[in-house]
Write a structure and sequence with these properties.
Blueprint (H helix, E strand, L loop, with lengths): L2 E5 L2 E4 L4 E8 L7 E7 L6 E6 L6 E3 L7 E6 L4 E6 L8 E8 L4 E3 L3 E6 L1
Parallel strand pairs: 2-11
Antiparallel strand pairs: 1-3, 3-8, 4-5, 4-9, 5-6, 7-8, 9-10, 9-11
Length: 116
């Protein structure tokens, strides 16, 4: 079993920045692809960014390219999402995801609200 706990969400003005963190326990993150997803009110959960186990392969949704940066620290069992130039449309609950062979694991989410 793996537990994922997100932190770092909050209220920020448009154009501002936030850094989300995801801490894993129960199993090591090393060797597995990690990702961030988000869900805005009334919308389905959508992909934001993923990073493979070594950090050599990173993908972003077009909507966040150039503004968000995903990173990981396998020694600390954490994954982060640096979010810059935030827009009102980035408002959502952000979820950390771990893609393991047996199943996907999800955190409980952290709320990000961007005021315009």
């Amino acid at each position: 079993q793996m537990q994922l706990v997100e932190s770092g969400g909050g209220l920020v003005q448009a154009g501002g920045s936030l850094r989300l963190s995801c801490a894993a326990s129960g199993r090591t993150l090393s060797g597995y692809t990690m990702g961030w997803f988000r869900q805005a009110p009334g919308k389905e959960r959508e992909f934001v960014a993923t990073i493979n186990w070594s950090g050599s392969r990173i993908t972003y949704a077009d909507s966040v390219k150039g503004r968000f940066t995903i990173s990981r620290d396998n020694a600390k069992n954490t994954v982060s999402l640096e979010m810059n130039s935030l827009k009102s449309e980035d408002t959502a609950i952000y979820y950390c995801n771990a893609r393991l062979p047996d199943r996907d694991y999800w955190g409980q989410g952290t709320q990000v609200t961007v005021s315009s």
